[in-house]
TrEMBL record:
CDD domains: ASKHA_NBD_FGGY_BaXK-like (cd07809). InterPro entries: ATPase_NBD (IPR043129), FGGY_C (IPR018485), FGGY_Carb_Kinase (IPR050406), FGGY_N (IPR018484). It holds the Pfam family FGGY_N. One of its GO terms (molecular function) is kinase activity. This is ATPase.
Length: 533
């Protein structure tokens, strides 16, 4: 699209906005009527470990959103010479799960508990048994039940329970709603009715009946909406939260708020059955859209969530991915700077990560664990990053970098083995996105080796979930009868550029050897948790 045409769309309010609050970055993307990103802004932020709880303050939420939007405004002004005053539609996405509980005065009752916390193991296990359905530790219902079992006084005062995306959307519009994909990470969904599972709601009510709470669960959960349905209007107060400068006008229609898993599926065109995507950044998870339900429950290994339009999805999730090798990168960069040199961050990452391609297929016997936080699937309750080697191992930079990339995918592979080997799930394509794939070829080759499956990356996948939620806003604004999958195939990805890398037999065998050692060494990791307090 020509620059003059884009400028006119901005002036006439024909562009769509997407905001995503990720684990380490808040990103804002503006797209035109052809669904192409035309400007973006961002703000880096980090979670805090407060009294043993991973959290972000609500002040940091709004500061980060307004700074990210301000960066976007500056980009629009400098590139197109006009201010961003009007929008056709917008949407909010954020990291899924977690616990944001408010009282009837809209006061936050306890600090935001993010998906990263693994304090809810007992609650998640009891709920999984109660429902005969996998309920992960990250889910909002696990956090609520944990608070109940722990006798936390605030529980009786809960009036509204939501996710981060649901909270931001509520403050922008006044609507207590949630997209079905994000809602499926709060409480199990009935994919036939597209509502919270009624039988499980009833089971939970009986389970907590003796506590005599003044609320019931359906009354405090957000209402569920499907992709394409309207979810409210940006009010004046919300417009000022987003843009304190006062330039952006209120009145913008919003699509249902979604979680990062759902927007990742949209951004990689992976919402149709037999498609899948793998998101690899701070955490790592693969989403496979199922043709039929799984034969049984795989508690702690496979989660069941939905696409933004309500199809059943199997999810293999690891809490940790790139965080630990990012820490090593900072250390290596400190060495370089100490020697009096300076290398741009992108070039620095590329040069070191490309060394992984030179390493032995099995990483020469090196064994790191990237557990900044605990990992449910491997039974590790707390984070203890660890690096172990035998004196006979080949301790080279190439093997070290390859091992850091391989360990980032260890938990993911354990879950995927269940889907491929036990459930014989059929899949036509897996698309990758996230920071793990930023270095061309390297991330794809490592992921293909780990999943023994071809991995494709769309040229646009780097735009991520902020682009995904902007696409959902555009889909809602069209008000047509086409399905979400049809819309993405025909209006967004019809001419998309795709690169695909297939694993070699040697690479697959190398990862398998690494994974065997990874599983064998887990008692060492557990000992680190037990003895390093």
């Amino acid at each position: 699209m020509l620059k003059n045409t884009i400028t006119q769309e901005i002036v006439n309010g024909q562009t769509m906005l997407g905001i995503e609050l990720g684990s380490t970055r808040i990103k804002t993307v503006l797209i035109n009527s052809e669904n192409q990103p035309i400007a973006q802004g961002g703000h880096d932020w980090e979670n805090t470990l407060l009294d043993g709880i991973w959290t972000y303050s609500l002040e940091d939420v709004w500061r980060g959103i307004s700074l990210s939007f301000s960066n976007l405004q500056e980009a629009v002004q400098s590139t197109y010479g006009v201010p961003l005053k009007k929008l056709k539609a917008m949407g909010v996405s954020a990291m899924m799960h977690g616990y944001l509980a408010f009282d009837n005065q809209d006061k936050l009752l306890v600090p935001f508990r993010t998906w990263r916390n693994t304090i809810t193991a007992k609650a998640a296990e009891e709920l999984s048994d109660l429902f005969a359905y996998p309920v992960p530790e990250r889910w909002s219902i696990s956090h609520l039940y944990h608070a109940i079992l722990s006798g936390e006084d605030h529980v009786k005062d809960i009036s509204f329970l939501t996710t981060l995306a649901g909270y931001v959307h509520w403050r922008l519009t006044g609507e207590k709603v949630l997209g079905i994909g994000d809602a499926s990470g709060m409480f199990p969904i009935d994919t036939e009715t597209k509502k919270y599972n009624a039988k499980m709601l009833e089971s939970f009510a009986k389970q907590v009946e003796s506590y005599h709470f003044p609320w019931n669960l359906p009354s405090i959960l957000p209402s569920i909406l499907l992709a394409g349905e309207p979810a409210g209007i940006l009010n004046e107060q919300g417009a000022r939260l987003l843009d304190p400068s006062g330039v952006l006008e209120a009145g913008v229609p919003l699509c249902p708020p979604e979680g990062d898993a759902g927007t990742g599926m949209v951004a990689t065109n992976s919402v149709a059955k037999r498609t899948g995507n793998v998101s690899a950044g701070t955490s790592v998870f693969a989403m496979i859209v199922l043709e039929k339900p799984l034969s049984k429950s795989y508690n702690k290994f496979i989660d069941l969530v939905t696409t933004p339009d309500g199809s059943l999805v199997a999810m293999s999730h690891g809490n940790n991915c790139t965080g630990e090798y990012d820490a090593w990168m900072r250390l290596f960069n400190e060495v370089v700077q100490t020697l009096g040199f300076s290398v741009p961050k992108g070039e620095f990452y590329d040069k070191l990560l490309f060394k992984a391609l030179e390493g032995d297929k099995d990483c020469g016997g090196l064994l790191p664990y990237n557990y900044i936080s605990g990992e449910t699937m491997t039974g590790i309750s707390e984070g203890r990053p660890l690096f172990v080697r035998e004196t006979k191992n080949s301790f080279t930079l190439a093997n070290f970098m390859r091992s850091q990339l391989f360990t980032a995918l260890g938990v993911l592979r354990i879950g995927m083995d269940i889907l491929f080997e036990e459930e014989h799930v059929a899949i036509d394509t897996i698309n990758g996105h996230g920071g793990f794939f930023k270095t061309a070829e390297v991330g794809q080759k490592m992921m293909a080796s780990a999943l023994h499956t071809p991995i494709s990356v769309l040229k646009t996948a780097g735009e991520g979930g902020a682009w995904g939620i902007a696409l959902l806003a555009a889909y809602m604004a069209r008000k047509s009868d086409e399905t979400l999958s049809e819309y993405l195939n025909e209006k967004v990805f019809a001419s998309a550029e795709v690169t695909t890398i297939e694993p070699t037999e040697e690479d697959i065998a190398g990862f398998n050897a690494f994974l065997a050692r990874y599983k064998q060494g887990l008692p060492v990791e557990k000992a680190a948790v037990a003895h390093l307090k």
